[in-house]
Amino acid sequence: MTLATDYSAEDGLGLAGLVRDGKVSAGELLEEALRRAKAAQAQINCFSALYPELARAQIAAGGLTGPYAGVPFPVKDLGVEVKGAPMTNGSRAFRDNVAQRDSTLVERFRKAGTVFFGATTSPEFGLTLTTESILYGQTKNPWDVTRITGGSSGGAAAAVAAGVVPVAHASDGGGSIRIPAACCGVVGLKPSRGRMPMGPARTEGWNGLSTVGVVSRTVRDTAAMLDLTHGPETGSRYAAPAVTRPYLSELDRDPRPLRIALWTTAPNGTKPDADAAEGLARTVKLLESLGHVVVEAGPMLDGEALGRAALFTISANIAAMIDERSAALGRAVTEDEIEPITASMANLGRTVPMVELARANNAFITAAICYEQFLDAGSFDLTLSPTLHRAPDPLGTMALTAEPQAMGAAVAGFAPHCAVFNQMGNPAISLPLHWTGPTPTAPSGLPIGMMFGARYGREDLLISLAGQLERAAPWAMKKPPVWVG
Asked: For the whole model, what pTM was predicted?
C-alpha cells in the first residue's frame, strides 16, 4: 500500500486515524492533498486559492489535536475567514481581501484538528446554482467536464468528488450544500436554522436563510463534523433544539421503520424529469426493502410567495453587503466590479419597500407551519424529493453573466425543492442514490441526489436514515472520470 492508496481509501476520520497511529504524518497528508489539489485544479478548476505556507506553519506550530488532527481541509471562498488567507466571495470587488481573523466556525474546525490549505470556488456571493464567476472562471463537474458542479459550494463538492479531500467546508442559503452534493455525487446536509455558528460579526446570514456545514464522501464525516461544530455562539439570538446524544452515534443502529412522504411536485409547480423520477422510484424501492413506508403526498405551499420573498430578502442583503464593501474600500463598488445579475439584484435590494421584507418573513413562517402541520396530519417522519429535478446542466446556463430571463427559468426548474428548507429553517440532506445512464460526455452517468427533509431540529433522524441507506447502497467507491487519486 502507498500513501496515495491509503489516502483514497479513507474518509476524514480514517485519515486522522492514520496520523494518530503513526502510519503517516500530518505533513505527508498535506503534501498529498496539495498534489491532488493541483491536479484537480488543472482539470476542473475547483480552487480559488491554495495557501500551503499557512498549512505548513499550522503543522509546524504543533498542538494539532481533536478527531481530525492532521487532516487537510479546504474552506469555501464565501463568508468564512481563515486568518491570513484570501477571501474574495467569488467577486472582483473583494479581489485583494485577506482575512484578519478566524471565523467562529473556523475556530471550531481548528479545534477539531483540521489543517487549512486552500479555498474552494464559489459563484459571486453564492447567488446562483452553478459555480462560475468572472473572477475565477468555470468550475467543472468531475463526472462530466461540460457540466456544472452546482452552486454555490460547487468547488467544495467537486474537490471531494474528485478525491482531493474526503470532506470540505460548504454553506447553504438556498440549496448551496445540497445542490452541489447532488451534482457531484457526494453527501450534503443543510443543518437547522440556529444550529451552526455564522459569526463572529453576525450570527445569521441572509436573515436566517443561510447556514454552514460540509460536503463529504461518507455520512460518518458529515455526522462527526456536525458534532464538532454545532452549537450557540456569542450573541446568538436563538438556537436549534439541544442535542441529546452525538450525531455520530446515530450511525450505530438503523432507524425504526419510518413513514415518509414522497413529495414530487415542488412549491413552484415543477415536476421531476424522467431521470429524477427514475431516481425517486429506485429510492422508494430501497426504502421499502428496508421496512419504511412511503406515501405519495406533499404540503401545499405558496411557491410564488416564497420565490418573491427569497428574491427580496437576498437582494436586500446583497445591497447591504456591497455598501459595506464600499465603506471598507473608501469608495463605491462599481458595477464593473460585480457581475450583471448581481448588480441587478443589488439595485432591486435598494428599492424593495420595507413592508416587503416583513411580508417575506411572514411567508417563510407560514411555510414552516404548513410543513409541520402536513407532517402531523399524515403522521410522517420525513419527506423525500429529488434534490435536482434534472441532471446537471451544461456550463453557462445559470451563470450570473447569462441572459437574465433564460437564467431565471433555468434556476427555477433545476432544484426547486431545496430553497424551501432554508426558508422554513428545517434540516435536509442530499444523498448520492442515483446516476443517470451514460452519455457521450459522461461515460459513468451523471449523479442526481435524493433529498430527505425533516422537522426542525431533527438532523439526528436524517443522519440515522442516511447511514442505513449508505450501508444498503454504498456510494463511496464510485469514482468519476476526473479522479486525482
From this structure: 0.98
Q: Is 385 a catalytic residue?
A: no
Measured at the alpha carbon of residue 107, what is the angle toward residues 105 and 113, in degrees to the nearest 5? 110
What mean pLDDT value characterizes the chain? 97
Q: Of 76, 140, 171, 315, which is the active-site residue? A: 76
Domain with 202, as residue range(s), is 3-472
Residue 38 is among the residues annotated as catalytic for this protein: no
Average pLDDT over residues 264-276: 98
Nearest of 423, 434, 473, 427 to residue 453 by alpha carbon = 427
Question: Active-site residue among 152, 192, 210, 464?
Answer: 152
385 neighbors 428 (Cβ within 8 angstroms): no
- Residue 58 makes CB contacts below 8 A (sequence gap 6+) with 64, 115, 116
- Residue 94: CATH number of its domain: 3.90.1300.10
| Band (2; pLDDT cuts 50, 70, 90) | confident
Is 1's pLDDT higher than 90? no
- 200-214 pLDDT tens trace: 999 999 999 999 999
Average pLDDT over residues 144-158: 98
Concerning whether 103 is annotated as a catalytic residue, the answer is no
Rounded Cα gap, residues 230 and 365, in angstroms: 23
User: 24 in a domain, yes or no?
Assistant: yes
Burial annotation 43-77 (CB, 10 A radius, 16+ → b, else e) = bbbbbbbbbeebbbebbeeeebebbbbbbbbbbbb
Per-residue pLDDT, averaged over 444-473, amounts to 98
Q: Is the pLDDT of residue 346 over 60?
A: yes
How many percent of the chain have pLDDT more than 70? Answer: 100
Annotated catalytic residue, options 122, 133, 176, 464: 176
Residue 484 lies in a domain: no
Domain count, the chain: 1
Contact assessment for residue 167 and residue 141, using Cβ atoms and an 8 Å cutoff: no
pLDDT at position 5 is: 82
Helical segments of 290-434, H only: 303-329, 340-349, 354-378, 404-414, 419-424
In a domain, 354, yes or no: yes
- 88 within domain boundaries: yes
